[in-house]
Amino acid sequence: MKSYSITEINTILKGELIGDTTQKIKGPEEIQKANSNQITFIGSKKYEKLWTNSKASAALISANSNMLPGDNRAFLKVKNVDLAMAKLLELFNPPAPVFDTDIHPTAVVHETAKIGEGCKIGANCYVGKDVELGKEVTLYPNVCVFDETTIDNNTVVWSGTIIRERCIIGSHCIFHTNVSIGADGFGYRPSDDGKGLVKIPQIGNVIIGHYVEIGANSCVDRAKFSSTIIGDGCKIDNLVQVAHNSIMGRSCIMAGHSGLAGSVTLGDGVVIGGSASIKDHTTINSGATVGAGSGVMGDVKAGKTVLGYPAQDAREMLKQWVAIRKFMKNQ
Fold this sequence. Notes:
Shape: flat
Helix content: 10-25%
Radius of gyration: 24 Å
Strand order of the largest sheet: 8-11-14-17-22-25-28-31-34-36-37
Oligomer: single chain
């Protein structure tokens, strides 16, 4: 088990050390659950009152905090507690599962597939015809990569994920368990005789940029034609739906249970809150935020925050909610 002195940790985080402790730090933990060989964090003033009864020997605190740690305890003052905690978690991050062999004997790799240097392919994986894997790509057990798909360097694909044919995946991506990339888009039209639905072929693909992370059980559907596109640096939570022909710009965030209908366009840096739904053919411009649970029915201007169903300016929606609450109290 890794352990560090508080001085060693401070050297890595480049904070200001207040107080000292002889206790070796073996990991981070929540302030109320931490024990004497753990470090915690105090991200806001409302948690400062919990420090007295915490058993942690050290904590990360904001640079503007005036707290004192107490005997044989230490604070590390940092500019951004959340970012410092992220570095700390990396320090104690356990190693990934180990492959006994680079390509497991039960994996099926088509003879035309091109496998880059340092790739690892786990048990029961399938790598199809004319697939290209860059260097250091990792496919954990039970991953399927279908024909003519390309995956760039250092991408990690966790078990149960399926990447359909002709998709293009960038470098340094992470797809968590049971992600679906490139399933058919949801396209149907009533038949001429009115007795059923006609399936519209979905002949496009999915293009995913570099440094994209997609959470467990999320789906990115292939385009009807052309491509569904996820831009560089996008982060997608669990149970998210990205429908056919949608386009996400760079560094967008989609929280759990949110969804884009077909042909939605997101600019750069758009944030979609949990369980929010975006109507088809809608554009949400760069820097906009959609509040959790909202339903976006029309375009959203750059930098704007919208809330509610149907979504509108967040401040106006909050005013409406306050007015409704006052009205109900007076009934």
